[in-house]
Amino acid sequence: MTYKVQIDDEVRDATADEAARIDAAHADAEAQSQAAANAAAAAASGRAKLAALGLTDDEINALVGA
Amino acid sequence: MTFPVFASGDVLNASDMNAVGWWLVKTQTIGAAVASVTVTGAFSADYDNYLILLSGGTASTDMNINMTLGSTATGYYKFGYFGAYSGTTVSGANGNNATSWVGVGGGATNGLYSWCHLSDPFASDRTLFSSMFAQPSTTGNGVQQSGFLDNATSYTAFTFTTSTGTMSAGTVRVYGYRN
Predict the structure, then answer these.
(1) How far is CA B138 from the centre of its chain?
(2) Chain B interface, best mutation among A2, A8, A9, A60, by max B CB count within 10 A
(3) Which is more confidently placed, A65 or B118?
(4) CA nearest to B164, candidates B82, B73, B102, B81
(5) Chain B environment of A39 (Cβ under 8 Å)
(6) What is the pLDDT of residues A17-48, one digit of tens each?
(7) S-S: B57 plus which of B53, B65, B71, B112, CB 3.0-4.6 Å?
(8) Displacement of CA B58 from its chain's centroid (Å)
(9) Which residues of A are less than 8 Å from B32 in CB distance?
(10) Is the Cβ of A47 closer than 8 Å to some Cβ of chain B?
(11) pLDDT mean values, one per 10 residues, chain B (179 residues)
(12) Angle of helix A16-52 relative to helix A57-64, nearest 10 degrees?
């Protein structure tokens, strides 16, 4: 993919090395976003299971936080 | 007359000026549709600590903005937490020897934003950061995090890189805290 990069006031096409670094930054962000989404999904699943056992929202919050 | 209150015509003594806490080191306007912006000459022996502000402009989509120092692409550690405006769930996000500090700033079509404090980027020592940002988007997040770069390299430049898409026309301001 072609990227534009800026060094101070100069805007130009990214070199291959710069493009690789941008790709790496995108991959890092995606991996962290996915990890956070997975953790949030696991938390939601856990809360649903606690609710299915009959705990109220206040009781679940007291156990695992809001 | 002494700081912090001055009257018109007062003499600014050295002691008054030396008590000024923040000095504007550099202002950089972001160009059109760039994936990254590198600010050179940002850090020097004049200051140990810096505040970097990103504001204004636009992003092509909801995004995080990552930070790197110099040409270093490894050794970035951080932990942060964030939550969407639409709920009360707090989520964590970590970087464990990553290629950048992900999410030092953020953006949306309504604007770009970062508040980032750096300690010792110029010193030959570990560089630490604390940052926060709010995405100006109804589907966005509020984010706070901190971390460090695991090397003892001295840096003079930093780069903001988008996590996806491009950014345009914002302003980066670098302030040095007087030692």
Answers:
(1) 23
(2) A8
(3) B118
(4) B102
(5) 91-92
(6) 999 989 988 888 888 888 877 887 888 899 99
(7) B112
(8) 17
(9) 4, 11
(10) no
(11) 84 90 97 97 98 97 95 95 87 91 94 98 98 91 95 98 95 97
(12) 130
| Count of positions (residues) in chain B | 179
Instruction: With CB atoms and an 8 Å threshold, state whether B66 touches A28.
Output: yes
Residue A58, token pair as written in the block: 């206040």
* Sign of the torsion formed by the C-alpha atoms of A38, A42, A45 and A51: negative
Could you identify the residue written with the tokens 């709010």?
B134
Q: Is A8 on the interface with B (CB under 8 A)?
A: yes
What pTM, to 2 d.p., does this model score? 0.90
Of residues B67 and A63, more confidence is placed in B67
* ipTM metric: 0.89
User: How far apart, in whole angstroms, are the C-alpha atoms of residue B144 and residue B134?
Assistant: 9
Cα–Cα distances in Å, from B131 out to A25, B48, B114? 18, 17, 7
CB proximity list for B162: less than 8 A, separation 6 or greater = A22, A25, A26, B35, B36, B59, B63, B64, B65, B66, B107
Tell me if chain B has a CB within 8 Å of the CB of A29. Answer: yes
3-state class (DSSP) for residue B123: coil
Please report the pLDDT score of residue A66 as a whole number. Answer: 66
